[in-house]
Predict the structure.
Amino acid sequence: GPDMAQRDDWLYTFSGDDIAEIEGAMVIGRDRDLVDVTKADFPLPGLGATLTDIQNDVVHGRGFVMLRGLPVERWSPVGSALAYWGIGLHFGEPVSQNAQGHLLGHVRNVGKDPSDPVTRIYQTSYLQPYHTDSSDIVGLLCLRKSKSGGASRIVSSTAIYHEMEHRHPDLLAVLEQPFNIDRKNEIPAGMGPHYAIPMFYRHGGLRTVFYVRDFVEAALRFDDVPDLTAAQIEALDTVDAMAADPAFHLEIMFEPGDIQFLHNHQMLHARTTYEDYPEPERRRHLLRLWLSAPNGRELPPDFAQRYGEIAVGKRRGGIHVPGVDLSAPVEAD
């Protein structure tokens, strides 16, 4: 984190020409449902090549990027969603983020109880612990920031992996064994309400992570899920402590118009607690995409329990519940 804080090669600021290209593409796609807008429908003749290079660096290099400067303050909610969707298509194919089949998510506090084991924490203003999402890439566009707090914190899970390999090999071995994971009532066809998968993998010559501690703890609500062992708790505590250490993480405050893309297989992300404005129209609001990268890495077979399809080049990841149609709601519920 401190190393990255001294650099700016992970930050790309849109130029005036970039914005003009994006707005030109928005005209082409403005009368269509987002679900029907493809990459070919959102041409970016100059910026597109730059986004391709950035996407490759996210998936096969640094693992994250911040794109800055979308003029969301002058665009309508529909226009901002369309611009974000079109840019996202240059990083991957959207996949469902919840049991409602939403390809475009709204990250905001809707008053959910953070102590309820089935609550998705992004629907609260509560501290969101370090985790990964169920897709190759996660993207967040800031429409409005909070009154205070709500910083994004990201950390290299590969750095944590190697540090644990050096300092706590016994605990790393624990993390490479299966943990029970709650599906939080978002259950695919033929699957149970929970499944078992390790947190860390050595696979295909790479270190791949799937870290969802709150889903691990939520699974304890089931009678057939045993309590965590002392070693498992210590291993999870060690990961959390390392990620929270300023020696590891990078903290970024979102500004309206910022887009952050992260590679879930090598990055953990978190959010600090925040205070919202009392007026609904001023409250913190981010748009989210889960993306399947066409050039993604080889995934461990265990990921099929969560991702369904795991083959490189296939649409993989997301949450798939029977009988649900895919949609991309541009307005929050």
The CA atoms of residues 5 and 227 lie 39 Å apart. The first helix runs from residue 2 to 5. The mean pLDDT is 93. The chain is about 25% helix and 20% strand.
